[in-house]
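Section 5: illustrative case.
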């Protein structure tokens, strides 16, 4: 877990420096060094004992030490940049490896837990998809409002405005507000730059990139979400929206008033 912590620190450093890399040559060098540092240490930290090109060959040949490393990685399931890809690759290789004795038993238990987790995830995704459909007029604005994409899983369990706010913050890796009495954020405008055929695609792409990596504060996320809700459901600007407000009830009330 210490390795995963260090990899996450190095990866965060890249995200921190990329936001200011175009300010000066010094800032760009700082970002470049952060990228180089992650690249240099990645293979040493991503797997116990380090990663090398022959690891999978040893695993498939039945090398006990390689099998032990693989099973430990699958059981702990560390979270860091590209860890999900490694986890799936190692899982597939273990299915083909000649596991015996304790190793075979451990992998059988792990595989059963993975199947159960996957089934629960599918159910969660279906519930989230139903909620997203119910909130479709609001959700359609999110691709222009927030620099993230929320999956169906993100919407599972969303009932209130506060639930949706936390889901957005989670996807953006931002700590959500705790004290909403002091939420003085400013709502951000949707990202809708004009780009005509034959225009400068490089400039457009640069603007889009700057929008995605720009610094967001939790107050701004809340203010932007509240502004979007008022706009979509045609609510009075002076109306106070609290985190505990039920989202879908508001949508249903609006539909009822129009029929």
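Designed sequence:
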């Amino acid at each position: 877990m210490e390795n995963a912590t260090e990899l996450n620190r190095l990866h965060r450093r890249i995200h921190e420096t990329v936001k200011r890399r175009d300010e000066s040559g010094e800032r760009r060098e700082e970002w470049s060094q952060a990228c180089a540092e992650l690249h240099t240490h990645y293979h040493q930290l991503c797997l116990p004992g380090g990663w090398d090109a022959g690891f999978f060959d040893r695993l498939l040949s039945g090398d006990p030490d390689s099998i032990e490393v693989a099973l430990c990685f699958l059981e702990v399931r560390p979270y860091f940049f590209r860890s999900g890809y490694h986890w799936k690759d190692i899982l597939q290789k273990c299915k083909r490896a000649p596991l015996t004795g304790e190793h075979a038993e451990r992998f059988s238990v792990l595989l059963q837990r993975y199947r159960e987790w996957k089934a629960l995830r599918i159910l969660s995704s279906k519930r989230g998809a139903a909620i997203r459909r119910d909130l479709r007029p609001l959700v359609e604005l999110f691709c222009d409002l927030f620099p993230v994409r929320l999956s169906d899983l993100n919407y599972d369990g969303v009932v209130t405005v506060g639930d949706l706010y936390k889901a957005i913050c989670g996807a953006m890796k931002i700590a959500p507000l705790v004290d909403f009495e002091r939420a003085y954020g400013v709502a951000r405008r949707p990202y809708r730059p004009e780009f005509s055929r034959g225009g400068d695609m490089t400039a457009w792409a640069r603007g889009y990139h700057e929008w995605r990596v720009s610094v967001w504060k939790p107050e701004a996320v809340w203010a932007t979400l509240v502004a979007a809700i008022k706009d979509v459901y045609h609510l009075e600007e002076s109306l106070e929206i609290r985190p505990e407000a039920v989202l879908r009830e508001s949508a249903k009330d609006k539909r009822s008033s129009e029929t």
